[in-house]
Amino acid sequence: MGAASELGAAAGGSLLLCAALLAGGCSLGLRLGRGRGAADRGALSWLCYDALVHFVLEGAFVYLAVVGNVADSDGLLASLWKEYGKADARWLYFDPNLVAVELLTVFLDGSLALFLVYAIVKEKYYRHFIQITLCVCELYGGWMTFSPEWFMGSPSLNTSNWLYFWVYLVFFNGVWVLVPGLLLCQSWIELKKMHHKETRSGKKFR
Fold first, then answer.
1. Low pLDDT (below 50) residues in the chain
2. What are the E-state strand segments in 58-190?
3. 121 CB contacts (<8 Å, ≥6 apart)?
4. 150 — phi, psi (to 5°)?
5. Where are the beta strands (DSSP E) in the chain?
6. pTM above 0.85, yes or no
7. What is d(CA 98, CA 94) in angstroms, rounded to the nearest whole number?
């Protein structure tokens, strides 16, 4: 009863919206990745979902924060951010640091995600340059979102509730650390392979 009551209508609706974006992103990514290896299909699925989150969810937050604040707004996306605000109260009202980071996240990271999708599908030579740039931006954005709060003792974070702490704060934010980290490893491995290939090729003509 206790756990079920915590997962109320607002939480359920927010999680369903996130699941719908995930399903849409994965569906589009798998369609674009037909005939490609599992790693590229996974990357495309993530990138499509990533772009949707940046433009739809975070774009809505930036708009609401600039024209007013989330706490006084209505609508589906405002409800989602109000629900997340139960875990991190900074998202309910205008926080200059968050808005500054989210502006970059929406316009830079979202655009880079779409650009990387194009680079993978068209097999462009600059694919891993864009991939590394995007991953570093994602990781830096996460650090700049939470580090100021940690240095002040996390007064806005609700860590007493399992849903808000483990699902909203740890899981949803941790995904944007884990996946960019994996993509950075993929770029490292692929660039290493290309370097070894060029090195072997050069030795043959000496």
1. 1-4, 6
2. none
3. 32, 33, 44
4. -60, -40
5. none
6. yes
7. 8
